[in-house]
TrEMBL record:
Domain Endonuclease/exonuclease/phosphatase: 9-253
Protein name: Exodeoxyribonuclease III
Organism: Lysobacter yananisis
Family according to the record: Belongs to the DNA repair enzymes AP/ExoA family.
EC number: 3.1.11.2
PANTHER family: EXODEOXYRIBONUCLEASE III (PTHR43250:SF1)
Gene designation per UniProt: xth
One GO MF term attached to the UniProt entry: double-stranded DNA 3'-5' DNA exonuclease activity
Length: 273
């Protein structure tokens, strides 16, 4: 029987090959309908397409050796490719962006640059990439189609989205320029789904491997799912599958997800005068 809701998730794997057993276990247990993956850290030909197909998922991916890499998965469907790179810089060959149509949604999967150390060329690249994203996302924000913009944004939007900002003040994820660009994106009309469902306390999605941050729940919220104005009214629930982060040799991220009403809200007919 077809479910009444649609589950969309984003998960930074920090390496798809070493984390493939975790990914397959999570897919089998949680059965998301649409998945955005980041940090594949594998060449295009090394993507585990056969294993994912056996698990019931079609895939579109952009691999890159050792770094980056993104993918979009569809449960029982093949994602239909729309775009394979973020426009605005033909010289940028980093695998950080994909767009596809999946289960009636326009899905934009992204892995925004980390930007450390800052200041420096890596932070400049982060801000330039963010500017390109803002320009491109405008059309999707205004689209009449339901659109989700999901992935690892490498931005902690506010101090409420981190366990303790003091030791992170110089990190690129907390810089005013990074936060300003995230807010400029939201100002286009995007809804931050996790924040909408969990304003307090805000759920963390990332715990680094140092100083027992996972054990102390010293986390950050940097993985986001943004919904355009057409899709936002269909939001039913959102959360983080923290159990995945507790597995042996895990990614430093946990999957974040949303539940959407499959059917679009009916438009009210204007009364006849």
């Amino acid at each position: 029987m077809k479910r009444k809701t649609l589950k969309v998730a984003t998960f930074n794997l920090n390496g798809i090959r070493p984390r493939l057993p975790h990914l397959l276990r999570w897919l089998g247990r949680e059965a998301p309908d649409v998945v955005c993956l980041q940090e594949l850290k594998a060449e295009h030909a090394a993507f585990p397409r056969a294993e994912l197909e056996s698990a019931g998922y079609g895939a579109l991916w952009q691999g890159q050796r050792s770094w980056n890499g993104v993918a979009i998965l569809g449960r029982d469907v093949e994602p239909v490719e729309i775009r394979r790179a973020l426009p605005g810089d033909d010289s940028d060959v980093q695998g950080r962006y994909l767009e596809a149509a999946v289960h009636g949604l326009m899905v934009c999967c992204l892995y925004l640059p980390n930007g450390n150390p800052q200041p420096g060329p890596k932070f400049d690249y982060k801000l330039d990439w963010f500017n390109r994203l803002i320009r491109h996302a405008r059309a999707w924000a205004d689209s009449e189609h339901p659109v989700v913009l999901a992935g690892d944004f490498n931005v902690v939007p506010t101090d409420a989205d981190i366990y303790d900002p003091k030791s992170w003040r110089r990190d690129a994820l907390l810089q005013p320029e990074s936060r300003d660009r995230y807010q400029r994106l939201l100002d286009q009309g995007w809804t931050d789904a996790l924040l909408q469902q969990h304003p307090e306390p805000r759920p963390f999605t990332f715990w680094d491997y140092f100083r027992r941050h996972w054990e102390r729940d010293a986390g950050l919220r940097i993985d986001h799912l943004l919904l355009n104005a057409v899709l936002a009214p269909r939001l039913k629930d959102a959360g983080v599958d923290r159990w995945v982060r507790a597995l042996a040799k895990p990614s430093d991220h946990a999957p974040a997800w949303i539940q959407l009403d499959r059917s679009a809200p009916r438009r009210r007919r204007s009364r006849e005068r």
